[in-house]
Structures are given as C-alpha cells and as structure tokens.
Amino acid sequence: MTTLDERWQKGIETRTKFGGGTLTGGSTPLAWHMAPDLERIAGEFLFGSIWHGPALKDHQREMITLTCLTVLKRDNQVRRHLSNALNLGLTPVQIIEVLMHSSFYSGVPATLDALAIANQVFEERGIDYTPQEVFDITETPNQLNERGIARRVEYMGPPSGGGQGPVTEAEKTFNRLTTEYYWGSTWTRPGLDLPSRSICTMAAMAALGREAQLASHIKGALNVGLSQEEIVEVFVHATFYCGLPFTRSAIDLANDIFRSQ
Fold first, then answer.
1. What number of other Cβ atoms are within 10 A of residue 167's Cβ?
2. Same domain for 95 and 124?
3. Do 124 and 108 share a structural domain?
4. What domain range includes position 211?
5. pLDDT at 26
6. Which pLDDT belongs to residue 213?
7. Rounded Cα–Cα distance for residues 198 and 57 (Å)
8. The total number of structural domains that make up the chain
9. Residues 187 and 151: beta-carbon distance below 8 Å
10. What is the pLDDT of residue 162?
C-alpha cells in the first residue's frame, strides 16, 4: 500500500509526462488555487493511482480520455489532451481516428469541433499532418455493406437470430446505411486496430450512459481479445472524465456479463 504522498508524487510524474517533460497547470491552471484540496484528490486518485494501473498502457488511457472529453463536448479539456496525446506517443493519424470514431456516438458536430481544435494544436506544435483519405468512391454500396457485415461479425460474432426485425422501411434503410458507413467504413479504417476501436467505443458508451448498447460492445471486446481486467480498467479510467455514477453502472454491467459466461 502506497502512502498518500507517494501517490501524489506519482501524479506529478504523470502530469510531467503530459507536458512532455515539463510540469504544467493543465487545461485550467487558474482553477486549482480555488480548490487546492481538489487538486490533491485528483493528483492522488486520478494521476497518481488510476493512470498508473497495469492493465492499460498510457496511449490507451489517452484514447479513453480523448473519447470521453469529445463525446461530452469538453472543448477546453480536449485541447489540452490533444497535446498530451502527442507527448504520450499517439501519432496524429491515431488522434484523428479517435476523434472520427466518436462521431457516431456524440454526433458529427461535436467531432467537427474537436477536429478544428486538433488542427489548431497541430499547427501550434509545428506538425505537418497529412490526412488519411481511404474512402473508396468506386466501391459499390453492396461491397461496403458486405465489408460492414464482415467487420461486425469479426467483432461481435455471428448474429444470434431470432429477433423480430424492423417494422418500418425507414428502419430497414437506416440499418443498411449503418452497416455500410458505421461498420463498413468507420470500423475498417486504418490507423486504429480493432481492440483500440473497441476501447474507444466502450469509453463513449460509458460516458454517455448508453448501457443497452454498451453490453454488446463489452461482449465484442472479449471476442477480440481484451481481458476482463482491461475492460473494467476502461471504465475505471473514465471516472474522473465522465463521472462515477456512469462508470459504476458500466462496471456493474460488465460484471453481469462476465458472470454469465
């Protein structure tokens, strides 16, 4: 068991890594002196304990953080963590893919705002970023649909069947478009591997309190090789970024799924 001061010192180490070797006041330096005890609690709990957990690597933790902040529209914090992400070893392509992946969870407007901030951060850091342009306009909708089905099965396994299916033509069309563009276009993009996309998705679902959808993604995470410890650590890490009630509910849901298998 570490002492509180040892946790605080570990938190200083984490925050120094965020700054690329320099300890800074973070995204809101004027806030800490208003509540110095909160700085101590966050420094020990979040930066000194959670960020040092063995189940996830720093770059995975930053993916979770960026996802939570993007889907919750915390633009000031997004700006800071975009810079942190670069200092922790995420490439510009990986960062943009994390933001793009969030668009189906928070909506495109929130993602566009985060992308505009990323553009500013990259320019400030002198990063010569060339976007990935992998969308194949020569592909047919059927090909895109087949690719989406294949990726969904790879991630979640074969459909169980037995469902009642859509009632309206509108939903049938929507389901087809989702298969094409969510699974076939977004989930197959290079830059993030399947476990990374799973981690980002679980973080987004937990942050937004979408338990019904989260359940299938916890099962998908297990299917692509994430361990129970890694999955729970995704939710633990999200606590200070999206709130304890949301992560507690996500952990309880994960435990129910683990016990049922």
1. 8
2. yes
3. yes
4. 59-134+189-260
5. 81
6. 95
7. 15
8. 2
9. yes
10. 64
Instruction: Answer yes or no: are the C-beta atoms of 50 and 237 closer than 8 Å.
Output: yes
Q: Quick check: 27 and 80 in contact, CB under 8 A?
A: yes
**Is the residue at 51 inside a domain?**
no
Q: Own/partner pairs for 32-40, CB < 8 Å, 24+ apart?
A: 40/8
In a shared domain, residues 243 and 213: yes
Q: Do 155 and 253 have their domain in common?
A: no
Residue listed under structure tokens 């973070």: 26
- Looking at the chain, the number of H-run helices and the number of E-run strands are 14, 0
Q: What is the mean pLDDT of each run of 10 residues along the chain (261 residues)?
A: 93 95 86 94 96 97 98 96 97 98 97 98 95 94 97 91 82 96 97 98 98 96 98 98 97 97 87
Look at the alpha carbons of 13, 15, 16, 17 in this order and tell me if their dihedral is positive or negative. positive
DSSP 46: I
What φ, ψ does residue 176 adopt, rounded to 5°?
Answer: -65, -45
Domain for residue 79, yes or no? yes
Residue 211 lies in a domain: yes
Q: What share of the chain is helix, strand, coil (3-state, %, to 5)?
A: 70, 0, 30
Residue 147, both tokens: 């690719």
Same domain flag for 98 and 214: yes
Neighbours of 38 (CB within 10 A): 11
User: C-alpha angle with apex 259: 208 to 251, nearest 5 degrees?
Assistant: 25
